[in-house]
Write a structure and sequence with these properties.
Elements (H helix, E strand, L loop, with lengths): L7 E3 L2 E3 L3 E3 L38 E4 L2 E4 L8 H13 L6 E4 L5 H9 L9 E5 L6 H12 L6 E5 L6 H10 L4 E4 L3 E3 L2 E2 L4 E2 L6 E4 L4 H12 L6 E4 L5 H10 L3 E4 L2 H4 L3 H15 L11 H11 L9
Parallel strand pairs: 3-15, 6-7, 7-8, 8-9, 9-14, 14-15
Antiparallel strand pairs: 1-2, 4-5, 5-13, 10-13, 11-12
Helix pairs in contact: 2-3, 3-4, 5-6, 6-8
Bound molecules: flavin mononucleotide.
Length: 310
């Protein structure tokens, strides 16, 4: 059996395989477990203009098949990121995708994005638009940021903030070179003994296997409407769950919460994808990107009973 080709290209960047971590789910502290040189890309925690202390504890609560987090984007700010973090991460030799969080403010997104360029050793910026619900605003912030840097701008959209596909189209029209779909889903947990919200931040984001079918649908829907590559994220735990996203139309995948359960999850996913491709006779991972849609369309194009899609 020959080893399948796992490499993919997104926005002119070659990734040795289509697997990265979801922003904020692990950083350098995992280097003891995870061989970073094996990842498709490294996506550190979202960075803000200035240091942010984050939310009071508790910040994470486990839920059925997932977790709710309200970290509050704790990070040391963009100066530290560029001067200290990026130089350390560059030695792994894989593309670094800088997740940028402008705290809901267009000018802040613009200023942070402007700090990144090809000279900084970062391959792409990913705008974490976690509070942008309006497609016009998405379009505006993306087009403004694209004008601030010479490296590709990716856009990460959060589900259930309005129409996912409309925002995906708006981001693409604004110049996004890839879309990361999706993100956590607004959620909360109540402590029935203390009779108060469990999380220090009260409301947080639900993630993990429980959101996977939602993420797969968002990718499926968007892939039919946009041409830019999609990075699928939400509930990926292993090779088969990543394959679902690829078949739905994602070119790459990000593994988030499951890194807390299994620190080697990203590496297991890479191996699982390779195994699936070899077992099923595919020479390259690129062959299966969007294959479920192509199969579905080929079936439905043949005359026969109309399908009830609901
Ligand atoms: C503890 C934690 C922190 C996160 N921090 C960020 C972040 O800083 N920026 C971001 O864009 N997404 C962040 N996310 C979202 C993940 O990158 C991912 O999009 C989401 O968790 C869905 O994937 P999953 O179900 O595999 O966890 C965070 C998720 C978790 C669980």
């Amino acid at each position: 059996m020959t080893t399948p080709d796992l490499s993919v290209e997104i926005a002119g960047i070659t990734f040795q395989n289509p697997v990265m971590q979801g922003a904020g789910t692990f950083g350098e502290e995992y280097a003891d477990f995870v061989d970073f040189t094996k990842l498709g890309a490294i996506v550190p925690k979202s960075v803000t203009e200035h240091p942010r202390p984050g939310n009071p504890p508790p910040r994470i609560v486990e839920t059925p098949a997932g977790m709710v987090n309200a970290i509050g984007v704790e990070n040391p700010g963009v100066d530290w990121y560029l001067n200290e973090l990026v130089p350390r991460l560059r030695r792994y030799g894989v593309p670094i995708i800088a997740s940028v969080y402008g705290e809901g403010d267009l000018d802040s997104y613009r200023r942070i994005t402007g700090r990144f360029s090809s000279r900084t050793g970062v391959a792409a910026v990913e705008l974490d638009l976690k509070f942008f619900s309006n497609p016009d605003e998405v379009n505006k912030v993306v087009s403004v940021c694209v004008g601030e840097t010479d490296i590709p701008v990716f856009v990460k959209l959060t589900p259930f903030l309005g129409d996912n596909v409309e925002r995906a189209i708006a981001a693409e029209a604004g110049g996004a070179r890839a879309l990361t779909l999706g993100n956590t889903i607004r959620a909360m947990v109540i402590d029935i003994e203390k009779r108060r919200p469990r999380l220090g931040g009260v409301v947080g984001g639900l993630s993990g296997p429980c959101i996977r079918p939602i993420g797969v649908k968002i990718v499926w829907d968007a892939a039919a409407e946009v041409r830019v590559p999609i990075i699928g994220v939400g509930g990926i735990t292993d090779g088969p769950s990543a394959i679902e996203y690829l078949l739905a139309g994602a070119t790459a995948v990000a593994v988030g919460s499951y890194n807390f359960v299994n620190p080697w999850a990203t590496l297991d996913v890479i191996e699982g994808i390779s195994h699936y491709l070899a077992e099923n006779g595919f020479a390259s991972v690129r062959e299966i990107v969007g294959l479920a849609r192509r199969n579905f369309e080929a079936e439905t194009a043949t005359p026969g009973e109309p399908r009830d899609l609901v």
